[in-house]
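for the recovery benchmark. tokens below, seq after
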């Protein structure tokens, strides 16, 4: 099972979303998904283990606590797969950015012309 399969489950996706905000202790992650999904603490631990086993997250011990963080390398498979689609949306977004910049230039030019015409006596 790779990153795709590990993230196919909504509980694990939510855990990854929470970890995108920064490191989290296992207990905090477990409580969050227990409240949202109604799963047990052992169930939450099982989801964390799946994410860890597939390299999506890594864990470090801090005393008795386990602190989880995203493993950027574990998401490389997803990033490579998404690359084929980025071209699909990057080109239209680049065109939109160009049009927005063009519109801003035209508004600035129009604004100056209006100010200049007001400054002249009628």
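predicted aa per position
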């Amino acid at each position: 099972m790779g990153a795709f399969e590990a993230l196919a489950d909504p509980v694990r996706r939510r855990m990854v979303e929470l970890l995108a905000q920064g490191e989290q202790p296992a207990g905090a992650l477990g409580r969050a998904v227990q409240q949202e999904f109604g799963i047990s603490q052992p169930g939450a631990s099982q989801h964390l283990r799946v994410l860890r086993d597939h390299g999506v997250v890594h864990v470090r011990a801090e005393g008795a606590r386990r602190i989880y963080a995203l493993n950027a390398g574990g998401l490389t498979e997803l990033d490579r797969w998404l690359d084929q689609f980025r071209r699909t949306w990057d080109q239209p977004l680049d065109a939109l950015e160009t049009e927005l910049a063009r519109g801003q230039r035209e508004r600035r030019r129009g604004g100056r012309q209006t100010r200049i015409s007001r400054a002249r006596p009628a």
